[in-house]
Amino acid sequence: MKRSELKPKIANAVITAAGYGTRMGFDKLFTPLGESGIPLLAVTLRAFENCALIRGVVVVTRSERIADTNAIRKAYGLSKITHILTGGETRSESVQTGLYALAADTDIAVIHDGARPLVTPKLIANVILDASVHGAAIAAIPVSDTVKHVMNGSVKRTVPRKTLYRAQTPQAFEPGLIKAALHSASENDTALTDDAEAAEILGFPVKITEGERANIKITYPEDLIFAEAYLERLGNAR
Q1: Which ranges in the chain belong to alpha helices (H)?
Q2: pLDDT tens digits for 8-33?
Q3: Cis previous bond, 170, omega within 30
Q4: Largest CB tally within 10 Å, which of 113, 158, 178, 204?
Q5: Is residue 2 one of the residues assigned to a domain?
């Protein structure tokens, strides 16, 4: 069945915005982008506001940023935000806090990094529709670089890249599935690199939705330069 033929389910999102930006040296989520001066987090939230399949958004941030996040909500007319909550010590704790704040009738829970402002409403919708069929779906793109397995500073082997993908967010799940998976990972002190890994560990298959090359996570100063240039080329409109 084509995505266009699917009946949309009720989808709500958790946006994680509780990090400290330690690798950037400053709080990247509230950094103004380009000439418009729109905060990075506002750009991310605007994509979810403009996605027709998203009904509500929960933002999980640091306690000292609650007021700033609420100011962004008001300034940019982000009417889909239902909660702005304080996150936990880890990303997984923050995600779980957000998940339990979603409406009880949520069919699909979408999780997205606040630091990925170049996500598009189309990609969000595609991940939701794939999760509606498969129970779990993540945005990902094929690896284009040659990948080396390195130990002690030396190459041990070249890893075939044909089956390798770079995971992105958004990632979308049936709520019961991801809640159970993250709870299990927490109980077993399992370190996770993304939310889908928790589902994979329990044996749940995760569908790959074709991601977008521009959908980078802002991690280093040069990423901000790219994001600003990209948004200015689009005229800040999505």
Answers
A1: 40-49, 66-75, 91-99, 121-134, 175-187, 195-201, 221-234
A2: 789 999 999 998 766 666 789 999 99
A3: yes
A4: 178
A5: no
